[in-house]
Amino acid sequence: MTDASSTPAIPVTVHRSDYRAPDWSIPDIALDFALGIDATKVGAVLSVVRDIDAPVPLLLRGDGLTPAAVRVDGEVWNDWRMEGSDLIVDLGERVAATVEIDTVIDPASNTQLSGLYASGGLLCTQCEAEGFRRITFHPDRPDVLSRYKVRMQGDKAAFPILLSNGNCIDQGEAGSDHWALWEDPWPKPSYLFALVAGDLVVNRDSFTTMSGREVELGIWVRDGDVDRTGHAMQALKDSMAWDERVYGREYDLDLFNIVAVSDFNMGAMENKGLNIFNTRYILADPDTATDVDYDGVEGVVAHEYFHNWSGNRVTCRDWFQLSLKEGFTVFRDQSFSADMGSPAVKRIEDVRLLRAAQFPEDAGPLAHPIRPDSFQEISNFYTATIYNKGAEIIRMMATMVGPERFRKGTDLYFDRHDGEAATCEDFVKAIEDGAGIDLGQFRRWYEQAGTPRLKLSLAEEGGHWSLDIVQTVPPTPGQPEKQPMMMPLRLAAFATDGSGDALADTLVMVTGATQRIALGTFAARPALSVNRGFSAPIIVDFERGPGELAWLAAHDDDPFARYEALQQLMLDTLVAAVSGKAGDNRAVIDAVGQTLEGAASDPAFVAEAVLLPSEAFIGDQMVTVDPDAIRRERLALQATIGAALETKWRAVLAGKAPPATDLSRKAKGGRRLRGVALAYLAATGADDASALAFRIFSDADGMTERQAALATLAHGDSDERIAALDIFYQRYRDNPLVLDKWFQVQAWSLRADTLDAVKELAQHPDFTLANPNRVRSLYGALTGNQAAFHQADGEGYRLIADLVIALDPKNPQTAAKMIPPLGRWKRFDDARAAMMRAELERILARPGLSRDVTEQASKSLL
Ligand code: 0A1
Ligand code: ZN
């Protein structure tokens, strides 16, 4: 069954400038749920208070709802009408009233996974951004905050566990039913409402807050999964302690519950006191989860927990302010993960993600500022720009003022706006006032889309060297002209021959379109280390020879800058090769070899540094992306480096893998480096490579080694490949999260027939469009596989368009997320561009398309 008909494609554009404070506030809400999988009755009692002088009707949003009954102050009320799917209640001259509305919803047919839905016998909710209106009529805007009391009643056997926000204040039995009454003392917007009912088991623990309060913690999962919740629980306790220590923020309820569900559109959701998670970010044990999965659990648990202050206690005034909570919270979870592990490696991972997901967004038709000016469907704005670029903007503020002053700013922000629905401007003002800095020009980061570029060159006069900067911000849709941004640029300069003064780590403020920075006196051109730690989220154009890059890769005292130098060297080599200007690979080979010398002391860093840039990132450097040449040249360089340093790769692999249960930084780094070494060795085509990969696969005591070996085998064409895929499938066919990996490694394969394999896998009995994780594991992996997705006959584009068309009626949010890869057509040759556009047009020609897909596909054509 499908229910997308409840969200018709009316492309209404909402503008930030149209914001008006609500006419009515709702201090209290009581909800009464009579639970059933196919029919849940919802009784809502809203205490409404008029906030403006003149009479005005009460506008309550609905999505797919019909009011079964409306009462006002206890009386049956007929003064209401439907306007589209919304309910307008005329309350005459009243300044306050109790409005009661009954509705009936069908969770089992809610395939959109927004509102109240069924996931494997469980009932759960997802209300951000506009899902609450699919449960009951309500203003459903984040600036209407209410205290919630929730009564839920249902069959004891079907729903033994009944959870909602806040504290359980009463419960009882009623025949074969039971009921629970929950109360959340903290006023909250409707998007933070949550309810879960079903058969769950709990991992219980507790945390004592800095003021000595005992908080009961519960992680609720299906029977059989509880043994895989230990890492999430530890991450939760670490997050609670970290937020107290670093931001002075204490948890504010006696209970904190997390529920894991298998069908979920996103990673997780920060509902007050009742976080709901995709199982993928809760369940982990060494046999089924990789080190990357473990880090994902830790990061997402922290992210949702941190929202309790940055999001819940201080929420957003309207959805244009989404980055207020998301950018800040991502910055907080990034800082937490850096503190828990390796700051340098974490920074490398975050920058890699920004470049892979956000830079292309900023360079394409869907580019938008971190505070957008308009949207049609807010679900389309949960983007890498709002989240990851948003985090970079917060990070720049922290960099400019330093940790103590930044803390003064955030304290002031929480003090000023606790209990409020705030704006991005409120945040900037609090940092400005609390930290004592003028952020006038800096505010442009909230207004202007596009990744700024700094073109750098060195100039010399009488032994004095300086750096010349030319800043440009590219035009983006709706923003043809741009002003220069203000940004902190960390740099250092080294005399590579040991003569002259080195310029130690310095923070300079870039503000102009052109600017000159004095570097000091050097006998010869210094090696410049620039945008150290990626202090600004920009693209730097700076021509440097292989010698200088190799020197920096070996000598720079900033690990991130060492990583950057080696990556740039690899990138320059690859871009030259793709453009038919293949040169000498000696500098790259030597630099990789030299970097590998540090493997024993910091294997995690070394593994990141020696990894070749992705095919997509190589493509991003070119005027017209040539996916086939990129695939060919990248594989060739991998084989060259693999062969030239074969003994080193073999030495890495000859050592014993750290035990899978060892999750120390060193052990994780060791496993990561082994994975990279295996890939280099396999790329050489060495006779024993497949056998070695198969042995690692078979002997592995955990998923990190097992998956790395399987992925390597999946690229090749050996009997071992077929055997390993089969063994893996048979062993894990009943574990959905691991089965996702089985689909994913095949869709990631660098084989020439990957697209055919994907088509076949889509027909596999274990493939389903009903589960977003499964959809992403196959089709999401395909769009990340540049040469496969962009196969010259356009078959990849057809496959994705077919998927969007099939998925949209069921789950428009997930369908719309598959469109941006088709929107990158301007970056490809005319033949590919025409085929990509044709698929976007084919999607748009479908009748009854959701608002989500309509907005993404139509904007992608511009
Ligand atoms: N606020 C959540 C993200 C989220 C947004 C929308 C959702 O609806 C499907 C779910 C989750 C976060 O940042 O973690
Ligand atoms: Zn978030």
Automatic annotation (TrEMBL):
<dbReference type="InterPro" id="IPR012779">
    <property type="entry name" value="Peptidase_M1_pepN"/>
</dbReference>
<dbReference type="Pfam" id="PF11940">
    <property type="entry name" value="DUF3458"/>
</dbReference>
<keyword id="KW-0031">Aminopeptidase</keyword>
<dbReference type="InterPro" id="IPR001930">
    <property type="entry name" value="Peptidase_M1"/>
</dbReference>
<feature type="domain" description="Peptidase M1 membrane alanine aminopeptidase">
    <location>
        <begin position="232"/>
        <end position="444"/>
    </location>
</feature>
<feature type="domain" description="Peptidase M1 alanyl aminopeptidase Ig-like fold">
    <location>
        <begin position="450"/>
        <end position="542"/>
    </location>
</feature>
<comment type="similarity">
    <text>Belongs to the peptidase M1 family.</text>
</comment>
<dbReference type="InterPro" id="IPR038438">
    <property type="entry name" value="PepN_Ig-like_sf"/>
</dbReference>
<dbReference type="GO" id="GO:0008237">
    <property type="term" value="F:metallopeptidase activity"/>
</dbReference>
<protein>
    <recommendedName>
        <fullName>Aminopeptidase N</fullName>
        <ecNumber>3.4.11.2</ecNumber>
    </recommendedName>
</protein>
<dbReference type="GO" id="GO:0006508">
    <property type="term" value="P:proteolysis"/>
</dbReference>
<dbReference type="InterPro" id="IPR035414">
    <property type="entry name" value="Peptidase_M1_pepN_Ig-like"/>
</dbReference>
<feature type="domain" description="Peptidase M1 alanyl aminopeptidase C-terminal">
    <location>
        <begin position="548"/>
        <end position="861"/>
    </location>
</feature>
<keyword id="KW-0645">Protease</keyword>
<keyword id="KW-0378">Hydrolase</keyword>
<dbReference type="InterPro" id="IPR027268">
    <property type="entry name" value="Peptidase_M4/M1_CTD_sf"/>
</dbReference>
<dbReference type="InterPro" id="IPR024601">
    <property type="entry name" value="Peptidase_M1_pepN_C"/>
</dbReference>
<keyword id="KW-0482">Metalloprotease</keyword>
<dbReference type="Pfam" id="PF17432">
    <property type="entry name" value="DUF3458_C"/>
</dbReference>
<dbReference type="InterPro" id="IPR042097">
    <property type="entry name" value="Aminopeptidase_N-like_N_sf"/>
</dbReference>
<dbReference type="GO" id="GO:0008270">
    <property type="term" value="F:zinc ion binding"/>
</dbReference>
<dbReference type="Pfam" id="PF01433">
    <property type="entry name" value="Peptidase_M1"/>
</dbReference>
<feature type="domain" description="Aminopeptidase N-like N-terminal">
    <location>
        <begin position="99"/>
        <end position="192"/>
    </location>
</feature>
<keyword id="KW-0862">Zinc</keyword>
<dbReference type="InterPro" id="IPR045357">
    <property type="entry name" value="Aminopeptidase_N-like_N"/>
</dbReference>
<dbReference type="InterPro" id="IPR014782">
    <property type="entry name" value="Peptidase_M1_dom"/>
</dbReference>
<dbReference type="Pfam" id="PF17900">
    <property type="entry name" value="Peptidase_M1_N"/>
</dbReference>
<dbReference type="GO" id="GO:0016285">
    <property type="term" value="F:alanyl aminopeptidase activity"/>
</dbReference>
<dbReference type="InterPro" id="IPR037144">
    <property type="entry name" value="Peptidase_M1_pepN_C_sf"/>
</dbReference>
<keyword id="KW-0479">Metal-binding</keyword>
